[in-house]
Amino acid sequence: MNKRISLVVLLALILTCAVMAGGKSDKGSDGGSGKPSITVYGIKNQEEFPSGQTENNNRIINYIKEKTGYDIRWIIAPNTNEREALNMVMASGNPPDMIILQDKAVFNDYVSQRLLNPVDDLLANTKTIKTIVPEETWRAVESGGKHYSVPVPQNQFSTYGVIARTDYLAKLGNPRLETIDDYVRLFQLAADRKIGGNDTIPYVMWGTEPDLFAYAYGLGVEYDDFGSGKLESTWISANAKAYLQFMAGLFSRKLIDPEYAVNTTAQIAQEKMTNGRGLLYTGMWTDMNTLERTITNGDKAFGVIAPPKNIKGEPTYFNLQAPVRVYIVFPAQSKKTREAIAFLDRCIEDDIRLTISYGWENEHYVRKTLNGAQVIDQTPAAEDIRYRIYYNMWDTKEDFINRVNLKGFASGYFPMSEFTKKANLMLYAPPINSVSEFSPTLKDLKDEYFMKIITGAWGIDKFDEFVQKWHTNGGDQVLKDINTWYATFK
Question: What is the pLDDT of residues 421-469, one digit of tens each?
């Protein structure tokens, strides 16, 4: 099996391209094939190519070349140091013609640095793009009246949810879990009865990820409109101080993971759920599948449960996905943006999109009726073209739901969607210089103070010091600038 392109090979490829023929011509080289040629920088993944095949020579990409009439060179992003590798690509003087981005922060940075071409003047000639991207999705890639991406609309709804060991809940009598106090009583009961053994962890947490109580205290998003008509920082709010006092109390009673500060990955936290120590966990919808497959103590015993009502007595909701699933962008140094957009427009038509998503009908998938609806069901041969994920440029809601069902993720995705309704308004914001400049510092401040207060290393009196530092380390400028944007958004 040939593994996907490595970072070392990628960088060598960049250097090679930089010295070949002085880069791309204004008219666009066809590489001697007689076809227009473009280079695409695609997404990362862990899939491998069958023996004798590569990212630029396999059944899927050869089909794409044949159907579009383009000579395509595909670069796969590395699995490590992805941001650094992409920055080197952009700085090489010979960037790809089209890049598939999954990170809004990277998109914002590149727009701010004027590294991307606007797409507005080229959309009129498209057949599909101009008809299937909703207005709210276009708004999320607008800056200065221009749009700097062809945004792929979001096709997912679920994000996070509360995952519980349902067998343990049954042993504890399936107590009512409607309020924050109900949850605390459950944690204490689990600890007292040592439901997971002597080192029971009633609530498994990890790193600086928002936990279910952060959402219940209104801290699920960094900036929110609390009815004043302006965006405010949730981190410096009275709610934040009350949350920290509450969490410090849970930590002191050993009701949340005493090691959460050093649980740096979701995998570490998941292990504590599957080995029988943990009772509850805030996880992504994909985690249910992982937990069910790897449990080492008992049968399948996980379920999604409702989060507690928030501090106002209202339902607690987790954040919706971003309005943009993927940012397809076109570097300003490329002379082939027109060709790249035409290529993309052709690839998202049904024939190519379906082949990339599923393979070939009656070989890799069949159509059948399930509960009165037509669905696509993969055959065992679909395993032979798992690498097709690298070439996925567009997705529909129907395609995504179909894969959720086919790949065994339904047990997490559908139950969590009931509790995923909170919009993060900042995901609609264009690039804002102060946000890019100060956000890393502000987050580091928040992470340090919150973690030390929760673990008892610092007292709650340190919260006022944090608020002061937040204001003086760029927070005031960020609030001013995001509200200037927000006044135009509402």
Answer: 999 999 988 888 899 899 999 999 999 999 999 999 999 999 999 999 9
pTM score: 0.80
Identify the pLDDT of residue 32: 55
Q: Give the tokens for residue 412.
A: 């997490």
71-76 and 324-329 as β-strands: parallel, antiparallel, unpaired? Answer: unpaired
Q: Which stretch, 29-38, 207-216, 257-266, 476-485, has highest mean pLDDT?
A: 476-485
SS3 at position 89: helix
Q: What is the DSSP letter of 472?
A: I
Instruction: Give CA–CA dist 485/275, Å, rounded.
Output: 48
* Nearest partner of 245 among 460, 451, 466, 467, judged by Cα: 460
Better-scored residue on pLDDT, 11 or 429: 429
Cβ within 8 Å of residue 455, ≥6 positions away: 248, 251, 261
Chain CA centroid to CA 475, Å: 25
Answer yes or no: are the C-beta atoms of 18 and 94 closer than 8 Å.
yes
Give me the pLDDT at residue 20, please: 37
Q: Could you tell me how many residues make up the chain?
A: 490
Distance of CA 8 to the CA centre of its chain: 26
pLDDT single digits (tens) 295-342: 765 566 899 999 999 999 999 999 998 899 999 999 999 999 999 999
Question: Strand pairing of 231-233 and 373-378?
Answer: unpaired
Measured between alpha carbons, how far is 108 from 71 in angstroms, rounded to an integer? 30
Closest to 23 measured CA to CA, from 343, 341, 342, 336:
336
How many C-beta atoms surround the C-beta of residue 134 within 10 A? 11
Phi, psi of 374 (to 5 degrees): -80, 130
Alpha-carbon distance values, 54 to 1, 5, 33, 47, 62 (Å): 10, 8, 19, 11, 11
